[in-house]
Design goal:
By secondary structure, this protein is mainly α. It has one domain (about 15-415). It is about 80% helix and about 0% strand. It has 18 helices and no strands. The chain has helices at about 15-60, 65-80, 90-115, 120-145, 150-175, 180-185, 190-200, 200-205, 215-235, 240-245, 250-275, 275-285, 290-295, 295-325, 330-355, 360-380, 385-410, 415-420. Helix 3 runs antiparallel to helix 4 (about 120-145) and helix 9 runs parallel beside helix 16 (about 360-380). It starts with 12 loop residues before the first helix and ends in a 7-residue tail after the last helix.
C-alpha cells in the first residue's frame, strides 16, 4: 500500500490516542496564546483581542461543516462498491466556498465591523477574510484524512496550525507588537494545510480523492452542515462576539468573564472539536445503532465535566489569579457553573456528530440553530453579566440536544446502510 492509498479498518483506540495527543498539544498551544495575550494586553485590551479571537473562531467554526461533510462522503465513497462513479473533489468544493466566504466578509464588513471591532478595524476584517479562506481548505483536508483513517496526518495538521500560532504570538510578546501582533497570531495557522500537503504524500493522496455524486449535491449537504457548524461556533468560539452584541461595552469585567469562559470550556470542547473526524467516522460505522453508540462518549464527557465543575469551584479562582494576574478575579461558583455550561455544549456536540453521521442535515442544523437562538434570547435577559452568561450557555444547548435525539430516535437506516461493512476496502 502506497502513502497515497486510503488506510483501512474501523476506528481504533490507537487512532483516538493519536488524535488525542495532537489535541492535547494543540490545546496547550491555545492556552499559551491566551496567556501571552492576557499578560501583554491587560483585561481591557484582552477584551478587544478576545472579541477578534471569537469572531475568527465563529467563521472558522462554520468551516467545520466542510470537515463533517467531507468525512461522511469520503467514508461512504471508500466503502462503496468499486464500480460506483466518483465525480466530486471535495478540495475543489472547498476552494469555491473559501472564495465566497472571503468575499462575503469583505463585502458585508461596512454593516458590522464598526460594532464588532473596537480597534484595528481594517486589519481585523482583512485577516478575518484571509483566515476563513485558508480554514475552508484546512477543514476539508481534515475531513478527508478522517474519512480514510489517516490519523497521523490528521494530528500533524492540527499541531502545525497550533504551532504556527504560538510562534507568532511569542514573537508578538517578545517584540512588543501589541494587539496587532496577536491578531496576526490568531490567523497565522490558516496556511498549515498547504504545508502539510507539501511535505506529506499521504495527505496529498487523500486530498485528491473523489466522492460519489455531483458538486451540487456535496455543496448542498455541506451547506446544512456549515449552517449548523456556524450556529455551534456562535456558542463555542464565537461567544465573545455574541456577548458583546447583546451586552454592549464589555470593559475590564467582560475581559475577566470571557477569559473564564474560554478556560472552563477548553478542556472539553477543544478535544471534542478535534475528535469530530473520529466521532463522525465512528457513528457512520455504527450506522445501525447510533443512539447506543452515544452512551460511552456521553458517559466520558459527563464524568470529565463533573470533575471539572468541582475543580473549577475549588481551585479556579486561585489558578486564574496566579496565572494571569491580580486583575483577573472570579468567584468559584461562577467558574463551576461555567464549567457545567461547557459540559452542556460538549454533550450537544456529541449528539450533533451522531446526527450529521446519519445524514440528518436539517435536524443537525435545527438543533444547533435552536440552541443558539435560545441562548441569544437568554443573553437579553436583565441579569448580571456573569448570570446571563451562565444561563444562556447552560440552557440553550439542552434544547438543541432534544432536537438531535428526537431526530435520531425517529431515523431508520436503510437496509444497504445497515448491511454496509465496518471496514474500508483497499
Amino acid at each position: 500500500m502506497t502513502d497515497a492509498t486510503p488506510a483501512t479498518g474501523a476506528i481504533t483506540r490507537a487512532s483516538v490516542l493519536r488524535v488525542g495527543a495532537a489535541t492535547a498539544l494543540s490545546a496547550l498551544c491555545g492556552y499559551v496564546v491566551m496567556y501571552l495575550a492576557a499578560r501583554n494586553l491587560a483585561p481591557e485590551g484582552f477584551s478587544v483581542f478576545s472579541v477578534f479571537w471569537g469572531a475568527f473562531g465563529l467563521v472558522t467554526g462554520a468551516t467545520n461543516g466542510l470537515l463533517q461533510e467531507a468525512t461522511r462522503e469520503v467514508r461512504h465513497a471508500v466503502s462503496a462498491p468499486a464500480g460506483r462513479p466518483r465525480r466530486t473533489r471535495p478540495m475543489w468544493a472547498a476552494v469555491l466556498v473559501a472564495a465566497l466566504a472571503a468575499a462575503a466578509i469583505i463585502g458585508t464588513a461596512p454593516l458590522w465591523a464598526a460594532r464588532v471591532f473596537a480597534e484595528a478595524r481594517l486589519l481585523s476584517v482583512l485577516l478575518l477574510a484571509a483566515g476563513v479562506a485558508g480554514f475552508c481548505l484546512h477543514a476539508t483536508l481534515l475531513g478527508m484524512l478522517a474519512g480514510v483513517n489517516r490519523w497521523t496526518q490528521y494530528g500533524a495538521l492540527m499541531v502545525t496550525d497550533a504551532g504556527i500560532r504560538v510562534a507568532v504570538a511569542v514573537a508578538a510578546f517578545v517584540l512588543g507588537w501589541g494587539l496587532a501582533g496577536f491578531l496576526w497570531a490568531t490567523v497565522a495557522g490558516a496556511v498549515a494545510w498547504l504545508i502539510v500537503l507539501l511535505v506529506s504524500p499521504a495527505a496529498l493522496g487523500a486530498a485528491r480523492l473523489r466522492t460519489a455524486g455531483g458538486m451540487a449535491g456535496f455543496l448542498r449537504g455541506a451547506s446544512h452542515s456549515i449552517a449548523a457548524a456556524g450556529a455551534s461556533a456562535v456558542l463555542v468560539t464565537g461567544f465573545p462576539v455574541l456577548l458583546k452584541a447583546t451586552y454592549g461595552d464589555l470593559g475590564a469585567a467582560g475581559g475577566v468573564v470571557l477569559l473564564a469562559v474560554m478556560l472552563t470550556r477548553a478542556p472539553l470542547l477543544i478535544p471534542l472539536t478535534a475528535l469530530q473526524g473520529n466521532l463522525i467516522a465512528h457513528f457512520v460505522d455504527e450506522r445501525g445503532r447510533r443512539l447506543r453508540a452515544l452512551l460511552a462518549p456521553v458517559a466520558v464527557v459527563g464524568l470529565v465535566g463533573a470533575i471539572g465543575v468541582v475543580a473549577a469551584g475549588l481551585i479556579g479562582p486561585w489558578l486564574l489569579r496566579v496565572a494571569f494576574g491580580p486583575e483577573y478575579l472570579a468567584d468559584g461558583a461562577v467558574l463551576a457553573w461555567l464549567t457545567a455550561a461547557a459540559t452542556s455544549i460538549a454533550l450537544l456536540t456529541l449528539t450533533g456528530a451522531a446526527t450529521v453521521a446519519a445524514a440528518l442535515h436539517r435536524a443537525y442544523a435545527a438543533g444547533w440553530v435552536s440552541a443558539t437562538v435560545v441562548a441569544t434570547m437568554l443573553l437579553l435577559a436583565p441579569l448580571a453579566l456573569e448570570t446571563r452568561t451562565i444561563v444562556a450557555l447552560l440552557c440553550g444547548p439542552l434544547v438543541g440536544m432534544a432536537v438531535h435525539l428526537v431526530a435520531l430516535a425517529r431515523h431508520r437506516p436503510d437496509r444497504h446502510a445497515e448491511s454496509a461493512p465496518n471496514t474500508l476496502p483497499t
